[in-house]
Prior knowledge:
This protein has helices at residues 7-12, 17-25, 30-44, 73-77, 82-91, 104-112, 144-155; strands at 54-59, 63-68, 94-99, 117-125, 128-135, 158-163.
Amino acid sequence: MKTPVCEICLKSGILCRSCEDKVKGGSVSETEVKVAGLLLKLSEEKKIPKDVSLKRVLESPKMVVIVCGKGDTAKFIGAGGHTVKRLEKEISKRIMIVEESSDMKEFISNLVKPARVVSTSTVYKDGEEVMKVVVSKGGQRISSDDFNSLMNILYGKSAEIAGE
């Protein structure tokens, strides 16, 4: 399994200089290290295939979003959601698995599935630029607070999500 932290560090629980520099520099979070370690353990138990990629782990107030490589979403979720349930138990937060995308609109679409993005626009509130995303009714899995937090982390933008 490919992760932002080397496998030896994840197995030993002690970070090498390179991985420690990533954490201190902010390119890898403590939550990413913890999730990567749990996922590595699951891959060794054959609950997750070894050919998957963990790209990023994002933490918002109420949830953790695992960004995986293209085509890896189902592999990370596991049969019957086994992997997600186990991670939720270990982390004590809701887990969402989202496929990576270099295109912001495609990533947002992946983030709000099974709802679909109806429109995106830029609005101005108190002199601040805010991205407003309107999604179809039903199936929205993410709160407005979590969505805004994730957009700030990923793109440095304030954002709102609303239903049709």
